[in-house]
Amino acid sequence: MPDQPRVLIVGAGVGGLTLAAGLKHFGIVATVAEIEGSSLGRGLALMLTSNVGLALRRIGLDQAVAREGTVLEEIVQTDASGAAIDHHDFRPANDRYAPTFGITRDGLISALSAGPPFPVAYGTTVSAVDCAMDSPQVLFSDGRRAEFDLVVGADGIHSAIRQAIFPDIKPIYRSFCAWRTVMEYPDNDKVFTIRSKPGTLLGSFEVGPQLVYAFLLVHAAEIPSLSRDQRLARFKELASSFRGPIPNLIQEQRDPTRVVFVPVYEVETPSYHQGRVVLIGDAAHAFPPILAQGAAMAIEDAVTLAELIGTNNDLDQVLQRFEAARRPRVETTRAAIRHRTVARGFEGPVTTDLLEQHPLVFSNSLKAYDDLIEDPFALSRPSKA
């Protein structure tokens, strides 16, 4: 193997760009391939919990992200009428660990690209990969062939790289769907508000000056077939069962192109790697959007893998240590999310037997956001070889 490992990252989304930036932090320039023409404009917004800031701090990107985001100070849960159910103050953890942010996806992508430059080949992906050798052979979509020491699948929930190494693993529909939109709203504050009733949740938080991100989750035994206009109409219909300024604002949305509708899937893989091909983020372990840990786990994966590659020349050992470091953390988070989706009726009627199958992991209150930070897997740093 050369002095610097030849690393191919497939996918220039949140996980892939974090890994590329992390490797550059250690003086390693990766090859990045992205099937789309740009990393921007492919999503709306997201919340980054404190564990994300802790991870990004390790590769010097926490301040770049902070400049693009809005610090959230509190989270409040109400019922459909607006009556308070639960409240949690983010500020102690913001001060002790790292801030919780609301941020547009484009803002996050721009921040992840703010450090020393690394090349990204847009409009390019991998058509085939031979992982039977120590140096995987890759065929690119433009006909080029190349050899790498490590191929990283950071290509999302419908990962082509996962399909190449685990062809029998498919995303599983979790019986609920999500609507998302970003709207102009001058009366923002620093509060993440959740409005809930059994089987439905409407959330909102600030993601920039006079910008609010709103999302709605609802149980659906089967994936509804909806046109773009029908998606907007259904979003308004579901939001109308809640009271408050954000549900009212959703009724004013006129542009169906500003509403994203997605069925909620989950991915579980038997391993995060096969030979010298490794998966990170949604390609390895997609989650429902509960507790805001999809992007968070992708970023933690990327930082951990970058640190291991940057401090250890034995890539086989790197992959073993990556699996050992990440799987317990990911599976704990998955179990916590599964309990909450079941307990809140997103996956259908709540029964005692179903709850016993998916016991409580973190606090049943909004304090769960602190439990995520204090989990030791979020704070550990891989030791040098």
SSE class = alpha/beta
CATH class of the largest domain: Alpha Beta
Strand content: 25-35%
Radius of gyration: 20 Å
CATH H-level homologous superfamily name of the largest domain: FAD/NAD(P)-binding domain
Helix content: 25-40%
Average pLDDT taken over every residue: 93
The largest sheet is: 7 strands, mixed
The count of helical stretches stands at 14
What low-confidence regions span 5 or more consecutive residues with pLDDT below 50? 377-385
The total number of structural domains is 2
What CATH architecture of the largest domain would you give?
3-Layer(bba) Sandwich
What is the topology, as strand order, of the major beta sheet? 6-5-14-15-16-13-17
Number of strands: 19
In the CATH hierarchy, the third-tier topology of the largest domain is known as FAD/NAD(P)-binding domain
Task: Provide a descriptive summary of the structure in words.
The protein is globular. Mean pLDDT is 93; it is low at 377-385. The chain has helices spanning 14-25, 50-57, 62-68, 91-96, 105-112, 160-165, 228-239, 245-251, 282-285, 294-311, 315-343, 352-357, 368-374, 376-379, and strands at residues 7-10, 31-34, 45-48, 70-71, 74-78, 84-89, 101-104, 120-122, 126-130, 137-140, 145-147, 150-153, 172-184, 191-197, 200-208, 211-219, 259-266, 273-274, 277-279. The chain folds into two domains: 7-73 and 90-171 and 266-348 and 367-379, FAD/NAD(P)-binding domain (3-Layer(bba) Sandwich), CATH 3.50.50.60; 173-265, D-Amino Acid Oxidase, Chain A, domain 2 (2-Layer Sandwich). The strands form four sheets. The protein has a seven-stranded mixed sheet. The chain is an alpha/beta fold and 385 residues long. It has 14 helices and 19 strands. The longest helix has 29 residues, at 315-343.
